[in-house]
Structure formats: C-alpha cells, structure tokens
Q: What sequence folds into this?
C-alpha cells in the first residue's frame, strides 16, 4: 500500500510525502505502519540528519484518518479494525513526539485530525497562506485525539477548549500566533526551502527563519479575551450558560455551533484536556486517548455523526444522549476507565 506514500531519502534527509490526493491525504493503517517503519530505519541510520513530512499534489496536508473505514469497523466488526488503526496511528504520533532527529512538517493546506497528529510533534512546523487547521471531531461524535489533548490543553488561555469543542478552523497566521506553527512561509517558496534543507540539514532553523515572512493579523487574537471569558467554565453546561448569557453576535454564533455538536464528545473533550495537564508523559496521553477511542468508536454518536456529516451529508445527527444534561458523569467515567490487561495501548519498542 505504499502507493499512498512517497518515501525517499535525499542525501542526508528522509522525506515522507503523503499521497492520497482524492482523500485529502487521509491516513490509513498501512500508511501509519509504513511511516513508522521508515522513521525507525532513519532513527538508527547515522547518515540521516533530519526528516521532512509533506504531501503530494492537492489542497490538503492531511485531513485526518480514514473515517469511512472506522465507521465500517464500528458497524461490521465491533471496532476491531478501527482499534488496530488507532493503535498504529497513536504509535506513530508517539514515535514522532519522541524522535531524536529534527522533523520538519509542512502544513501547507488542510491539517485536521490525523494531520494534527503528525505535524504537532515536529520540532519545525511550517504554516502557509493555505493552512486550514482544525480538530473537528465533536461534530462526528469522536474526540480530539492523536495527542490533541496534549497540544490543545497547553495552548494559551482557553483557546484549546474553544478549538476542541467548536472545531473552529484556524488559518496559517493564527496557527503561528498561538504556537501551533513555528514558521510562516509563502507556499510559493516551499520548494526552495525543502531543497535548501536537503543541501544543509544542520541549518534547518536558519533556513526556515530566513524564508519566513510576517504573517497577516491573526483573527483569533482579537477574540482572545472573549474566548477566555466565555469558555472559562469547567463543564459543558457552564460554557453553554456563559454563551447564552452574553448578547454578542460572536457568542450567538458559537452557541449555535456548540449546540450542533455531540454532547458526549464535548464532555469527553473537556475531561480529556483537563486530565492531560496532569499526565507525566506523551505515552500516558496516548494510553488515555486509546481508551477513549476504543470506546467512542463503537458508540452511537460516532456512527450517527459520520452518517449525517460524511455518508448521507444531511447534517442532522441525532445525538444520544441528546442534551449535555443527559450525559452522566458515570458514562464519561466509563469511557476513560482502564482497558482489560493486554488491551491497553503500548508504544513501539
């Protein structure tokens, strides 16, 4: 299945290019395993000094994981192939997070879900005018996984909670402003930058610094105070009440957005971000997310969310429970509980 990926070495640089243009380069299990194998080989290869991750043609860096496969798995094999995908994907996320050689991710286009998981662990994260970054999982009954709990919970103020709940899309300038991207470079200059890195991988920092330009104004910064105030609540109910009590147009828009999301997913996301700050390592994060993933994968809301948003495109998911009040603490607790021995997520050896 490596036609879904272009894996090469150029001089002293390993290069992974995602190649599923029709699916906006969404990840499959085979892609995750092939990427992990290449990274493992390069990690122990003295001749490889750095790794670049980008995408072949098309408008997306990586639009996530293979959602259709996950839904089919939930409906047809009790989630077995879906769990195998999560296990392999999270191993790849953790491998990148702990990688000893510098990794450069070029987030030139749609960077969502799984694309966040393979770009955020990179030491160098390049955004462009084409970047559209989001974790839109609450809209399909899933949750911001692939390390989303770790990255979002550590953003300034309550921006992470806002992004996790609403699935708001950020442009490249916004990613740069809040630290999701380390550099902002015009897409027309990327080929030159990649060639320079291949020629001189020891100087990635200065190559990227020199090619960077001042990004446009970041809209999210103008809303920073409002986000911190209205998303300050610890619970979903508190956040909805704050939005309801505010008479601004912005609050009305976000309230409408939130009311369309899976109440269970929203509660899971808030708990996940809060718990993440107490974890000692990224491996602990992935273990927690795998517990959540293996359960929400086979929940009513995921199959229903994918049906409404992606399969039938009717945009009318019937969530169950239908209200935040209907999602009990016991239900959330069960989603986060430890898995039976032998079923927990483990990092690559």
A:
């Amino acid at each position: 299945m490596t036609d879904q990926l272009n894996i090469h070495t150029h001089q002293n640089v390993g290069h992974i290019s995602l190649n599923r243009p029709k699916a906006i380069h969404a990840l499959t299990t085979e892609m995750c395993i092939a990427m992990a194998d290449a990274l493992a080989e390069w990690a122990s290869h003295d001749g490889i000094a750095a790794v670049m991750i980008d995408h072949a043609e098309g408008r997306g860096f990586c639009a996530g994981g293979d959602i259709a496969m996950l839904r089919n798995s939930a409906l047809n094999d009790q989630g077995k192939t879906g769990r195998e995908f999560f296990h392999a994907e999270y191993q790849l996320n953790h491998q990148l997070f702990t990688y000893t050689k510098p990794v450069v991710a070029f987030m030139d286009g749609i960077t969502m879900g799984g694309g966040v998981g393979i770009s955020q662990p990179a030491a160098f994260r390049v955004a462009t005018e084409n970047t559209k970054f989001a974790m839109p999982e609450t809209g399909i009954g899933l949750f911001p996984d692939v390390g989303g709990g770790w990255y979002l919970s550590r953003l300034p103020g309550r921006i992470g909670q806002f992004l996790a709940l609403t699935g708001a899309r950020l442009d490249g300038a916004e990613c740069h402003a809040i630290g999701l991207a380390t550099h902002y470079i015009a897409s027309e200059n990327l080929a030159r930058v990649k060639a320079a890195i291949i020629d001189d991988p020891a100087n990635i920092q200065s190559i990227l610094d020199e090619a960077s330009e001042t990004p446009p104004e970041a809209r999210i910064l103008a809303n920073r105070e409002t986000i911190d105030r209205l998303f300050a609540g610890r619970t979903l109910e508190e956040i909805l009440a704050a939005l309801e009590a505010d008479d601004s147009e912005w609050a009305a828009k976000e309230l409408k957005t939130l009311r369309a999301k899976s109440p269970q997913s929203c509660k899971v996301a808030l708990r996940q971000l809060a718990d993440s700050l107490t974890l000692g390592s990224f491996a602990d994060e992935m273990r927690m997310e795998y517990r959540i993933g293996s359960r929400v994968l086979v929940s009513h809301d995921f199959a229903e969310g994918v049906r409404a948003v992606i399969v039938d495109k009717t945009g009318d998911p019937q969530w169950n429970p239908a209200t935040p009040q209907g999602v009990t603490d016991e239900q959330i607790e069960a989603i986060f509980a430890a898995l039976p021995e032998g079923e927990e997520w483990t990092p690559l050896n």
User: Anything to note?
Assistant: The beta strands are 5-10, 13-18, 50-55, 60-62, 103-107, 110-112, 124-127, 132-134, 170-171, 183-184.
